[in-house]
Every structure is written in structure tokens, then in C-alpha cells.
Amino acid sequence: MCETAKEIEDFPKTVEQGLQKKFRKTIWCPFVKAINRYELIQPGDKIAVCISGGKDSMLMAKLFQILKRHNKIPFELEFLVMDPGYSPANREQIEHNAKKLNVPVTIFESPIFDSVFEIEKSSCYLCARMRRGYLYSKAKELGCNKIALGHHYDDVIETILMGMLYGAQIQTMMPKLHSTNFEGMELIRPMYMVREEDVMAWRDYYGLDFLRCACKFTEMAAKRGTGDSNSKRLEVKELIRELKKKNPYVESNIFSSVENVNLSTVIAYKEQGVKHSFLEWYDTRKGEAEDE
After folding, report:
1. Strand partners, 77
2. Residue 160 near residue 242, CB atoms below 8 Å
3. Which of 7, 86, 173, 273 could tie 3 with a disulfide, CB 3.0–4.6 Å?
4. For the domain that residue 121 is a member of, what is the CATH number?
5. Could you tell me if 15 and 62 are in contact, meaning their C-beta atoms sit under 8 angstroms apart?
6. Does a structural domain hold residue 84?
7. Pairing relation of β-strands 146-148 and 46-51?
8. Does residue 72 have a pLDDT over 70?
């Protein structure tokens, strides 16, 4: 059934009302909770909301629009889309969705896909680093002091397990970070406590269609059958799904594990790039750690 002009015009408002009512508990409240809990926004901030074209970042854009209207803290927004070499069809889909949801995007181009296309080793990592650099640079040019990325709760717990299983390290995806290469800039992740299944429920409820992965390298890797970080993430997704069948709390336990680190029971750890061993304090803290 064709939509009327009135329905098309009212669609963004309908989506915003739905986020505050139907999806209030599952999306809106976790979004606000993360912002408050991790102090992601301060008065006077100008935030570049980075939109990749996927479901997570586009939802984040709508949530920020609502927040700006109702928040008592004064802050400004720029909705930033970087085209790293999308096909015309993918670029058109991003522009269509932004218009449909009434998100006023600023689009700029970069040569990232062409730069990493021939690099097979760690290409996804390199692509992500380059993307971030271009986003920081453009955001700073627009007068922003922060960039917001759409990583969600599931990204966080998957990153924790990927670090352990494939990187031999315990670390998490932080809710906010100071940039080391762009002075005065920060990265924030306001979707930090929003579940991916709830994002998908929102997308499907409104019949929205977003980009999945539009990377040239991923398409070629799939044809060649070569692995990359995306395949590892899929493996971890499946592992968590299987573990959840026996333990329904496994996801929240993984998330909480990096909030409850007991340094007295850790063999070694890094702080500010310097590695420390338990042997440094072992003889001076007798009795502090119980025998296991």
C-alpha cells in the first residue's frame, strides 16, 4: 500500500514518539542511562553524530534529536556521514533513510575503501582506524569536540570475549575515550547499554532498511573465503548464543566482569602502557588475597 504525503511527512515524528513510548524501556532509557552513568555529555559540547548508514548509528541520530529537545544541558549536534567509497546504490540508501527520518546529514568523502582494498592482512582494523581519523578531522573542522559512534551493548561483550580468545588480553570497548591524535577531541558511545535485538526490533517495527556492510574488502573476502575480524565476531556471537541457552545471565556477566576486576588476583596488568606484575607487591601485601 502506497504511503500518503501526510504519512511520509509525519513519519519522523511517529518514530520519535515510538522511541519515547513503545521503545522507552528497551531503547530510550538505556540510551539516557549510559549518557548519565558515564557522563558522556557536558554543557557546551558540540557532538558529531557519526552515521555509517547502518541501523545502530541511524537510531542513535534519532535519539540525539529527541535528547536535544528535552535535555536541560545545552549542547549542539552535527550529523556526519563519511562516504569512504560507497557504491551509488549504498550512498543513495543512506541519503534516503536520512531524509525519511528527518536527519539533516552532512556528507563528506574519503578514499578509505580504495586505500585498504589491496591490503588483506588486518584490513578491517586499518579501515576502522582510518575511518576514525577522517571523522575526527572533519568533526574538528566543523567545530565539534566529540564524535559519537553507534556501538551497542552486544559490541561491548563481543569485544571482551574476542580480546580474550583471539588477542590474549582482557580489555573492553570503553564508553568514552580521549583522542590521542586530535587534541581536545573525545569519542563517546551513547548506545553502550542498548541491546542489538532491541535495535532490530525498532528497525523491523517501522519497516526500515539500512546498510549492513558495504565494504569492498568484505565482499571480496567472502568471495575468496578468507577470514577477517568480522568472521571472528560472528563466531563469538554464536558462542554467546550457545552459552545463553544454559545460562540466561551470561551476557550481563560478561559485561559486568570488566567492572569487577580484582587486581589482587591478576597475574599482570598494564597501566598507561606499562606492564606490572603481582610480584611487585606480593611480599608486601600478605594476607590481602584469600587462598583460592
Report:
1. 47
2. no
3. 7
4. 3.40.50.620
5. yes
6. yes
7. parallel
8. yes
